[in-house]
Specification:
64% of the residues lie in helices and 9% in strands. The chain is of the alpha+beta class and 289 residues long.
Length: 289
């Protein structure tokens, strides 16, 4: 996922998504206490503290089965010594820690799991920590609302357009079959899979077999992109129309496959053009220093 940036008391804080967890750039947080050039030193000094090492060790033992507890003890024994100046990279390498990581390049710095980042902020500035938590929660609420809207849109498109196709199957395919030998649900599944294979490249059954846990509460269409669902809507409409025309499955599949490839390419190209225009606009209005 793309990095997100929140503004906390005029300090830009970068948040990165790693798998299912949020990691916050504590180098950005450190700028509250020092300037950008010395922010890394603030993080290093924080890591020297025994209380910090105790907290990190307990967090890792709770959430990271691969954490090397024995190695972490060496760090804690040296805490407080003037010669003890550990780096985050050294801590990660020797203990196999997962709560911190170092990123290079753009948006570079030390990133910490949100639990650890809030603890770091508390050590730097307790008041700033409160504002950080408030802005972080606001961001998560916005993301949750957006996900809910997208999910509702997906389900609406999937369910309502599926009705168009199932109605066509009911009226134009099932009446011509021996329902005792060929139950209605088989006819529905076959028609759905014509569209699934044309769009996704695999059947719903194949997806369920590959994703047994997800399939308990979801289907493949729940994980489709907005572009795919838009094309899916069109494919189901086209399929229903071709069923009424009496075209066989092979003919319909070839047509649907061509439509899917063409429309996905059109939507993807349009999105790329929009992104390029947005970047050009941002460049155009950059202030001259």
């Amino acid at each position: 996922m793309k990095n997100r940036i929140i503004d906390v008391q005029n300090v830009k804080i970068t948040i990165s998504k790693e798998e299912s967890d949020d990691y916050i750039c504590i180098t950005d947080i450190a700028k509250v206490k020092s300037n950008s050039a010395r922010a890394a030193d603030v993080v290093r000094n924080w890591l020297r503290n025994r209380g910090t090492l105790e907290y990190l060790s307990v967090w890792e033992q709770l959430y990271n089965p691969a954490f090397k507890v024995f190695e972490s003890e060496h760090f804690k024994k040296q805490a407080g010594l003037l010669t003890f100046t550990p780096s985050v990279s050294e801590w990660i390498e020797k203990t196999n820690a997962a709560g911190l990581y170092v990123k290079r390049g753009k948006y570079g710095g030390t990133y910490a799991h949100k639990d650890i980042a809030f603890e770091f902020a508390s050590a730097i500035n307790p008041v700033f920590k409160l504002f950080l938590i408030k802005e972080f929660q606001r961001l998560k609420e916005e993301e949750n609302n957006l996900r809910q809207m997208e999910w509702n849109a997906k389900r609406f498109l999937s369910k309502n357009n599926y009705l168009i196709q199932t109605d066509a199957v009911k009226n134009y395919i099932i009446p011509h079959r021996d329902l005792k030998k060929d139950p209605q649900w088989i006819a529905y599944a076959e028609e759905a899979d014509i569209v699934n294979v044309a769009l996704f490249g695999f059947t719903a059954k194949a997806w369920r077999e590959m994703n047994p846990e997800l399939a308990k509460k979801n289907n493949v269409r729940d994980f489709a992109t907005i572009h795919e669902l838009t094309v899916l809507s069109n494919l189901e409409t086209h399929n229903a129309h071709m069923i009424r025309e009496g075209k066989n499955k092979e003919e319909r599949f070839e047509v649907l496959k061509e439509i899917a490839e063409y429309q996905l390419n059109i939507l993807s190209t349009a999105e790329q053009i929009k992104m390029a225009e947005t970047c050009d606009d941002r460049t155009l209005f950059q202030p001259v220093l």
